[in-house]
Amino acid sequence: MIIYSSSVAQFKEAVDDNKIALNIESAFIEKLGKRPSVSEWRSWNNSMQFMERIIRNSKVSDDCGVMIEYNIPSTSKRIDFIVAGQDENQNRNFIIVELKQWEEAFSTEKEDIVRTSINGAVRETTHPSYQAWSYRQFIVDMNKAVYDNGVTSHSVAFLHNYREKDPEPLKLEQYQKTIKEAPLFFSHETRKLQDFIFKYVGKGQGMQILYDIENGKIVPSKSLVEHINALFEGNSDFVLLDEQKIAYETIITLAKKQDKKRTIIIRGGPGTGKSVISMNALGGLLRNSLNTKFVAPNSSFRNVMIEMLTKQSALSKMRTKSLFMGSGSFVDTKEDEFDVLVVDEAHRLKGKGSYMYKGVSQIEDIIKSSKVSVFFIDDNQRIRPDDIGTIAEIKRVASQSKSEIHEYELHAQFRCAGAEGFLNWVDDILGIQDTGNFNGWDQDTFDFRLVDSPHRLYELIKDKQEQGRKARLLAGFAWTWTDQKNGNFNGQVEDVIIEEHQFSLPWNGHSIRETWAVHSDGINQVGCVHTTQGLEFEYVGIIIGNDLKFNESTGELYTDYTEYKDKTGKKGLKDNPAQLNALVKNIYKILMSRGMRGCYVYCRDEALHRYIMNRLAINEKRT
Questions:
Q1: pTM here?
Q2: How far is Cα 95 from Cα 206, in angstroms, rounded to an integer?
Q3: How far is Cα 103 from Cα 235, in angstroms, rounded to an integer?
Q4: Which Gene3D superfamilies match (predicted)?
Q5: Residue 362, phi then psi, degrees to nearest 5
Q6: What is the mean pLDDT of the chain?
Q7: Model confidence over 187-219: pLDDT tens digits?
Q8: Which of 293, 364, 373, 278 is nearest to 326 (CA)?
Q9: In degrees rounded to 5, what are phi and psi of residue 17?
């Protein structure tokens, strides 16, 4: 949706008459049915003065087209400024201009992430060149009118209040690939920007190009499909086996029909291949020209999936990211705006009042926003009170929305070396469900050990990593996590402390939190459930902290409220020990099920250690 568009001549006249902000505001109210914020109005009034001078001094033709506040289809993002026209060879072009009023910024170790003052505080945000590039790439990949009609796109970032520093944080080496894709211009570089604009659109005839962009159908381009196909080709992490293939084909067949609203529920426990199917479904649906997004509540999970697909290629990673969205992104989207939304880790979907979420129910948002919604879910992996994702709730919302419900259950175990008996045993010892497991598992195939020292646990995991295995040390949330503003940007503070063994390690670093599972520094840090849920390793070492204990008098596991340090995870549960205990036990089951070949466990509570040792001995006798 275009909020405001005009010819260059009309744009210059509106600025000369000091009416541009008023005109944009009027269009904003008409198109969106609400008033802009004061900060938005001021931004238009300020930034458009700068852009008018740039456009006027660039001497582009008056019949070039100007588009302001273009709402990118199927997203909540708006492009600040687009100018369209022809070059001297009559090639049709448009330029996206990302405008920033920043005066200062700071680099980070995260790819394409910087820090600057936003709403009165220094916060992390994406690099301006990355923003400009990502908006352009979405249009190129998804707007049929653009890629079918031979329109060429360009993008730049213009920081009109920013004085370049020496050295300049926004131009450091880690940002150069992105800047090459979307050039960065500061306050003293207006002539360079003017020359850039004239080079590509200076000869005018831009209004038809704006019309094409506005009215183009949103479907994946052949180029994007080929890109996705190349990512999956030969990638053993995403090979479909047995019933996974059946579930995948079920999704593709139902989604292709597009004749009615449908909700597909794929349920299965840890290791049944939900994420393998969901990722393949994304590729298959795009190949069938369906406007599809991969949705996951957990940003760490999303980013590791992107890393696994793109294999460290920066440009491939940048392009692929546009297909992935957080679960809170659909509050304001239109009915059936997407053909398909594929939701992994659906048990972590949130309800009203959750951090940073402005809606009522993410389940309702997703079903509303898509013709076909696909939910991958395990009811026993909810870990916080605000996790509302359950099969029952999805069915309720789907029925309310008149969405046809289809269910498919995964049974085969592909994690823990196929040791379904081990996962049944974990369910049983944690009291999650009575599995009646008496068959045990093949210890030669899946290596489980209970150790009496965190040092020994760490040694086992480091040894596996040194052997070339994917291995990580994980723990329950039984220690506080020092904030980065207190000097803990990347695991500088050793928060996981076990005094009785003189053992200490840092939690996974803030700076690599979203890629900790595959980052080289990860082996020297302790991961939590939020950085590992949905992922898998070959070997995991689990520290069970003092949050989970065993009462030898009653024979029951219980959660110590004061030792469980996740404030959000225990909010409102001080007087509900049963629910708190269930959530904490789910956390430890999730952690213990991350290993494909082995799981090693250290219990800080001695009674819990004795209980598991006894259960292990009984299990070994049975096998």
A1: 0.78
A2: 11
A3: 44
A4: P-loop containing nucleotide triphosphate hydrolases (3.40.50.300)
A5: -70, -25
A6: 90
A7: 999 999 999 999 999 999 999 999 999 888 888
A8: 293
A9: -85, 5
The two three-digit tokens of residue 309, written as one number: 């697909």
Q: Distances from the Cα of 584 to the Cαs of 175, 281, 449, 495, in angstroms?
A: 40, 31, 21, 20
**What's the DSSP call for residue 508?**
S
12 in Cβ contact with 52 (< 8 Å):
yes
SS3 (DSSP) at 558: strand
Which tokens go with 271? 């290791």
183 vs 129: CA distance, rounded Å: 7
SS3 sequence of 40-62: HHHHHHHHHHHHHHHHHHHCCCC
319 CB-side CA count, 13 A: 24
* Predicted confidence band of residue 483 (pLDDT cuts 50, 70, 90): confident
Span 342-388, pLDDT tens digits: 999 999 999 998 888 889 999 999 999 999 999 999 998 998 998 99
The answer on pLDDT for 623 being more than 50 is no
* Cα-to-chain-centroid distance, residue 182: 23
The pLDDT score that the predictor gives to residue 317 is 78
Q: Which of 257, 276, 416, 298 is nearest to 266 (CA)?
A: 276
**Segments of 30-112 assigned E as strands:** 65-71, 78-86, 92-100, 105-107
Q: Which of 418, 261, 275 is nearest to 345 (CA)?
A: 275
Segment (H or E) for 602: strand 595-603
Q: How far is CA 586 from CA 60, 133, 416, 533, in A?
A: 62, 40, 17, 11
Return d(Cα 537, Cα 139) in angstroms, integer: 36
Return the exposure string of 161-186: e unless at least 16 CB atoms fall within 10 Å of the residue's CB, then b.
ebeeeeeeebbeeebebbbebbbbbb
Cα angle: 501, vertex 507, 511; to 5 degrees: 155
The strand pairing partners of 106, in sequence order, are: 115
Structure tokens at 330: 């659909």
The tokens for 586 are 């789910």
Residues linked to residue 269 through DSSP beta bridges, in sequence order: none
Place of tokens 């039984």: 478
Helix, strand or coil for residue 230? Answer: helix
> pLDDT grade, residue 28 (50/70/90)?
confident
